[in-house]
């Protein structure tokens, strides 16, 4: 049976942090502690300053389409693998609305620009655990520890926490203690998916061990390019 995969967008695929920093600079004329990547925005800004940045984003037409991808080739690789191996991939987001197109459309448009054709985007503000259970997902990729904990607590899905900062050692240890895998890059996460597929047929659910996922060696054979639709040109 093919994998059913949930993929968070911001922090895993899209560089929301840089985009938000630009929004803060546009509103306040300053960066938000770029020299301190370990701190959160709530530590650097007052609630009023945060609200002002979010209002700026909300007034910006199709703001979500302007974000940069962390690893654009890996988004296309995920698409090609999903076509080859018949994976079902659901992109999950809690993005608030902005001016312009609906969030779902903006996210779909953005994903197509990165190479993932006809993406399935779910804009769900609730628990990732409940959603994973409802969709019967096998695995979820997310950059928030709390979301990963919800996934493994409320469903039989496994979770991979994407921690791009080396300063997140405490979160990494906490995740590992909860049975959550951790990676530093999307490329590593996609490698894990290919390994997981090889063992999940025989060991679905809670019996599947992390040691089965995080094995090295991935196939380097290039996949034949799928037939592409024309890129969307509307924002």
How does this model look, in words?
There is one protein chain. The protein has helices spanning 16-28, 41-44, 47-59, 72-85, 103-114, 128-135, 145-154, 169-177, 186-200, 210-213, and strands at 4-8, 88-93, 120-123, 139-142, 158-162, 181-183. Helix 4 (72-85) packs parallel to helix 9. It folds into 2 domains: 4-14 and 68-213, Rossmann fold (3-Layer(aba) Sandwich), CATH 3.40.50.1000; 16-66, no CATH class. The protein is an alpha/beta fold and 235 residues long. The chain is 43% helix and 11% strand. Mean pLDDT is 83; it is low at 215-227 and 230-235. The N and C termini lie far apart (37 Å).
* CATH homology superfamily name of the largest domain: HAD superfamily/HAD-like
Unreliable parts: 215-227, 230-235
Count the DSSP helices: 10
Read across the widest sheet, the strand sequence of neighbours is 3-2-1-4-5-6
Report the CATH C-level class of the largest domain: Alpha Beta
Q: Shape, please?
A: globular
- The CATH topology of the largest domain: Rossmann fold
Residues in helix, %: 40-55%
Tell me the radius of gyration.
18 Å
